[in-house]
């Protein structure tokens, strides 16, 4: 039976307890966190809103700038109209099931057809029909940057577990 590591001091226990509560609130309420202020290389709408937001913000598949093997993970091509940069590389340190959370968002916020069933999974339809905001996939990506950075800040501040034997 696997053992859960124990801390040796009560203060360390309470530090983990407090961090757990903060992380739970952060992760459960990820849609309410402030979107990370990325730099828009292309597609900055702060001065002039797009005439057709649904088309302007439509995402097919996000990808990193650059070419393999030198991908630029600080810059993401969101679609043909929008490229964002200024993504801190530390945001990729938060890993869920072996993959950075940001890469999960990039992989899932797209348009994809299931080969077996032919069902189309379209993040844009969800954004428009369910959330009511065509910018949702872009803002979600920005929010997950914030969540990733905050998560790693909390985790790195935890006390060391020491010798667990």
Which helices and strands, and how do they pair?
Blueprint: H1 10-28, E1 39-42, H2 53-56, E2 63-65, E3 72-77, E4 83-85, E5 95-96, E6 99-100, H3 101-108, E7 111-113, E8 120-122, H4 123-131, H5 136-156
Antiparallel strand pairs: 1-4, 2-3, 3-4, 5-6, 7-8
Which tags fit this structure?
alpha+beta, two-stranded antiparallel ribbon
Brief write-up:
The protein is α+β, with helices and mostly antiparallel strands and 165 residues long.
Description:
With 165 residues, the protein is of the alpha+beta class. The protein has one domain. It is built from 5 helices and 8 strands, in the order αβαβββββαββαα. It has a 4-stranded antiparallel beta sheet, with no helix packed on it. Strand 7 and strand 8 form a beta hairpin. Helix 3 runs antiparallel to helix 5. It is elongated, with a radius of gyration of 19 Å. 19% of the residues are buried. The model has no long low-confidence stretch (mean pLDDT 94). This is Type ISP restriction-modification enzyme LLaBIII C-terminal specificity domain-containing protein. It comes from Paracoccus denitrificans (strain Pd 1222). Pfam families: Type_ISP_C.
